[in-house]
Write a structure and sequence with these properties.
heterodimer, A: about 450 residues, alpha+beta, Uridine Diphospho-n-acetylenolpyruvylglucosamine Reductase, domain 3, eight-stranded antiparallel sheet, about 25% helix, about 25% strand, B: about 240 residues, Rossmann fold, 8 helices, L-gulono-1,4-lactone dehydrogenase activity (chain A), Oxid_FAD_bind_N (chain A), FAD binding (chain A), FAD-bd_PCMH-like_sf (chain A), D-arabinono-1,4-lactone oxidase activity (chain A)
């Protein structure tokens, strides 16, 4: 079946044949029968750009590969590539276990979590998803099913490899024990960017999860004012009655939303409100869903940007390059770029994936409507500043970077290419992202 | 690949000497296009375009060689994000009146060769599942005038071909963008007095790039020519033939 596919940002659709295998056997047959234009795996389509698109080729929807097991003794989950973190959380949280890393949405597959080496609010302590993987099985271009462990070059090329080394069929990774399904959360408002960064640098180590939402619309003295949230899994003493984990869409965006719903004016109002409604300083208990995945409560929120879609720009600059971060925030604030949710986070050590995004430093993520005037030039200016500071942009969010910048931002790219070329000499695994960035 | 903000990476320009074509390429390179293939007759020295430039020999009238031009271009840069079909000859009606063979040859370049190039481009872009073919049409073909009806009739044919091709490609991921400039002040029209609503190659290029990024099916340059020709097409022939040029 030929279908036009996009990422979560709903930009640049391209047609591909979409197939949904129900077993590894069927998956191997599909890979063996891939057309000249190649094949790439797709999970729940939460990459923002073109990572899970393959114009004129084959896209394998892995969500039919949905078996998983959990061993309570070791805390290890073994899950097929198409199992979602949502499925795992729903089953494991009542048993007192949590996934090692959760991105801002739980609607991602395990295969996608490895391929993008996703990170969460605990990156400063626990690194990214790949760091928790004990082994994975990969369906390669030659049709083999390889089991890879940390230390293997192809493992390092697959973690963060955006699905270009093969299809991730199964992953074994460690989970973390929790004692309740609630979060103990400390909320604090900061006056400006310097205070935000200072508080994060000083207190991050005391909490498992930390993140700051930045009001990018505030200018001048208030530039970079933020709402900081820091949380930990609550102990039974901290909550009287821990309700079972009960996620689910709380509200649903209408199927058709006018393109201008999220515009300069509404975003200005939203940013002001979001900052104002936060207490100066407060401690509260919160469920897992509202703490980790506030946007999952609004199903299809990506449609609110209208038919032209949106892009997310997420970059990291190493520790010591705070000036670059400050400069970019200042430019955004002056430019009046309407960003819906801008998030700042301090990263800890990376996971060793050759094309993994995180590195010790500061990461900023912002959503921008794709139709904005001058957006292309603005972001290319940021690319140069980020690359100049030794930083990079996140491929799972990217939909517009160029090949030259890619090579500058990812110094391990050549090594990754050599390993990939050995595993897939004919370039069978290909995506629109791979073509755009000449991977 | 065309990215989320309409930027492209690779461009093939057929008619590597075309002022408008080169101006479009220059703008695309400034917006991030990294690799360019210029297809032109022999003895062509490519200008600096701010991108990696390859030159491939191309003779519009050698239609049997067109397939090889596309094969070479894809070998050099991979997928073709934008293909610009920009070659052409103007010539004067007086000359064509005196030399019908020259007229037939001009039509072969301005129409026949574009048909061949367009069909090759369609095959490549359809297989890729993405990419845009930019066809340089002209207001001369919107309604043919007695002052240049050989040239105008070829452009009329080309415009119709490009519309049909665009419809045929619908749903394939590939697109056709038809550019309809008025009188363009440049090398091709040297010595001719500019007509009303004329433009420069750069203005045509700017409008083309904006239309490319927006994914539009056609663009008039200047824009006002669109509504103007919707009216002019309805003008009775008795009046139309009295137009001075």
């Amino acid at each position: 079946m030929t279908t036009f596919l996009t990422g979560w940002g709903r930009t640049a659709p391209t047609p591909a044949r979409l197939a949904r295998p129900r077993s590894v056997g069927q998956l191997r047959e599909l890979v063996a029968s891939a057309p000249r234009r190649g094949v790439v795996a797709r999970g729940l389509g939460r990459s923002y750009g073109d990572a899970a698109q393959n114009a004129g080729g084959l896209v394998v929807d892995c969500t039919g590969l949905d078996a998983w097991t959990f061993d309570e003794g070791s805390g290890l989950v073994t899950a097929s590539g198409g199992v979602s973190l949502h499925t795992l959380m729903t089953a494991l949280v009542p048993q007192g276990w949590f996934v090692p890393v959760s991105p801002g949405t739980r609607h991602v597959t395990v295969g996608g979590a490895v391929a993008a080496d996703v990170h969460g609010k605990n990156h400063h302590r626990d690194s990214s998803f790949g760091a928790h993987v004990r082994s994975l099985t990969l369906v390669t271009a030659g049709g083999e099913v390889l089991t890879l462990r940390p230390g293997h070059p192809l493992f390092a090329a697959t973690v963060g490899g955006m699905g270009l080394t093969g299809v991730i069929a199964e992953v074994t990774f460690g989970c973390v024990p929790i004692r309740t399904s609630m979060m103990r959360v400390d909320v604090q408002r900061t006056a400006d960017l310097d205070e935000t960064m200072a508080v994060m640098a000083d207190s991050d180590h005391r909490h498992r999860y930390t993140v700051a939402w930045i009001d990018l619309i505030a200018r001048g003295r208030r530039m970079g004012r933020s709402v900081l949230t820091r949380g930990d899994h609550a102990t039974p003493a901290e909550v009287k009655e821990a309700p079972p984990f009960a996620p689910g869409a709380l509200a649903r965006a209408p199927a058709w939303v006018p393109g201008g719903l999220l515009n300069g004016l509404s975003l200005r109002a939203f940013n002001e409100l979001w900052y104002r409604r936060a207490p100066r300083r407060r401690t509260l208990t919160q469920g897992i869903a509202p703490f980790f995945h506030p946007l999952d409560g609004v199903e299809g929120w990506n449609r609110m940007y209208g038919p032209r879609g949106f892009v997310q720009y997420q970059f990291v600059v190493p520790l010591g390059a705070e000036e670059t971060l400050r400069g970019i925030v200042a430019t955004l604030s002056e430019h009046g770029s309407p960003s819906f949710l801008t998030v700042l986070k301090r990263f800890g050590p990376g996971s060793g994936g050759l094309l993994s995004f995180p590195m010790p430093g500061w990461t900023l993520a912002l959503d921008l409507p794709a139709g904005g005037r001058g957006l292309s030039g603005l972001l290319r200016g940021f690319d140069r500043r980020v690359a100049g500071a030794g930083g990079r942009v996140y491929l799972a969010k990217d939909a517009r970077l160029g090949a030259a910048m890619m090579a500058e931002m990812y110094p391990e790219l050549e090594r990754w290419r050599r390993i990939r070329d050995e595993a897939d000499p004919a370039g069978l695994f290909r995506s629109d992202l791979a073509r755009r960035l000449r991977l | 690949m065309k990215n989320a903000l309409g930027g492209v990476d690779t461009v093939l320009l057929l008619g590597g000497r075309s002022e408008i074509g080169l101006e479009i390429v220059r703008l695309l390179a400034g917006l991030g296009a990294g690799r360019v293939v210029l297809a032109a007759r022999d003895g062509f020295d490519p200008p600096d375009l701010g991108a990696e430039v390859h030159v491939v020999p191309f003779d519009a009238l050698d239609v049997h060689g067109h397939g090889a031009v596309f094969a070479r271009a894809t070998e050099l840069v991979g997928d073709l994000d934008v293909v610009i079909s920009a070659f052409g000859v103007l010539g004067t009606q007086e000359r064509y009146d005196a030399d019908p063979a020259a007229a037939a040859e001009a039509v072969a370049v301005n129409y026949g060769a574009h048909v061949s190039v367009g069909l090759h481009a369609a095959r490549v872009l359809r297989e890729q599942g993405h990419g845009t073919l930019v066809v340089l049409s002209s207001v001369a073909g919107a309604r043919v005038r007695k002052a240049n009806f050989v040239y105008g009739s070829a452009k009329a044919g080309l415009d119709g071909f490009a519309q049909g091709l665009g419809d045929a490609l619908h749903g394939s991921g590939a697109r056709v963008l038809i550019v309809r400039p008025g009188f363009v002040i440049g090398r091709m029209t040297k010595g001719l007095a500019p007509a009303p609503m004329s433009s420069t190659p750069r203005q045509v290029a700017l409008a083309t790039v904006a239309a490319l990024r927006a994914g539009a099916p056609s663009v008039w340059v200047p824009r006002a020519l669109g509504p103007a020709f919707r009216v002019l097409r309805l003008l009775p022939r008795a009046l139309w033939r009295r137009l001075p040029r």
